[in-house]
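Why do we bother with a discrete structure alphabet at all? Because it lets us treat a fold like text: something you can write down, compare, and reason about line by line. To make this less abstract, here is a complete entry for Deoxyribodipyrimidine photo-lyase. Read it the way you would read a sentence in a foreign language you are learning: slowly, and without expecting to understand everything at once.
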Amino acid sequence: MTALVWFRDDLRLADHPALRAALDTGEPVLGVYVLDEESPGVRPLGGAARWWLHHSLASLAGRLAEKGSALVLRRGPASREIPRLVDDADARGVFWNRRYGGAEREVDAALKTTLRARGVDARSSAASLLFEPWTVTTGAGAPYSVFTPFWRACLAMPAPRHPLPEPRDIAGPARTPDSDALDDWGLLPSDPDWAGGLREAWEPGEPAARHRLRAFLADDVDDYARARDEPAAGVTSGLSPRLRWGELSPFTVWHEAIASGADVGGFLSEIGWREFAWHTLFRHPDLATVNLNTRFDAFPWPRLRPSLLRAWQRGRTGIPLVDAGMRELWETGVMHNRVRMVVASFLVKNLLIDWRRGEEWFWDTLVDADGASNPFNWQWVAGSGADAAPYFRVFNPLLQAEKFDPHGEYVRRWAPDHAEGAGPAPVVDLKETRRAALDAYEAVKRG
């Protein structure tokens, strides 16, 4: 008999409630990962995310083997593969940590019903959010739509639980069911291999995630509030892909940050923003495609000019800070948060391209793109989302560079041609396109 732990976006051993529940059964424990790109509504991963997933799964498999267990890989709809694994492993229980996207919740709920009908113990745990989405509501029982009162309500709740320790040993079954070979999944780019910059910038996996958290808290957190908006300062945490893939739990981040003794209120509020995004997705599963503010359904987007979209994607807009950010994204799979806001504003409000096109590009190129934060932040910049920046707030990328990259260090690193005065000419006039965007917004307000 076996207890299966179904890993998803929680590729770690420390603070893993589903793993702890499986161990508490006293049965041999076997890890499982299902690459499910077929269940209705489940969004296939982008290219950068697939690269990260490959390496994080390799790390997790190695760590489970060191502890005495294994990770079985299967590909296909979870509704088919999990029951098959229950049979193959003679499992009495399947344990997982909860997901909050609409399609994923439907998959999990149906599987729980199916497994329990067969007499299999199927249990889910809270592990990926500090506060479950249905627990944080206004006095009237409604979800929050503005971040500040949302986060204030979270902070008034009982403190998040302490993280669970990593198990010393994980005894696996005597016989391991057949597993796919990770390399056969084709998660890594090969023709061409565009991931050289990702390999240089990142080491996926739980051990590297722990190291990064402790290095940030030891070296950079004291400067975080002062310099977090300066892309050349290098004081951001670098934890966004770690949290996205669950190599760290938010409970671990929360308690280690507080234990550091530093002033971490500003940093923890960014963890709160992540929570707010997931709570919003829980209530609005179509966040990646549908305006939260339905007035924006009438926004008069002009006919798409593919050449402008390509110039933005490739960092060839002629606007130094925008081009630097887009090239950093292509090279490393991430972009500084301040610059993310600038490039998003430029796409939506200067190029007048629908925010969904930007969300799709980030989904494909960010290693930290998840189903909540990516569309949530795009809608925030576009003005159509929860607690959104007003549409008339247009980030001027030249003024943003003067304020946050005053010595041009960031642009020099990622767009040296601009620093040398040899960059491409601007594809649009910033003043004219800002005026056009505001005129379009006025039409929405009148309409």
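What the structure line is telling us, in plain words: The chain has three domains: 2-126, 129-159+206-283, 294-446. The chain has a mean pLDDT of 96.
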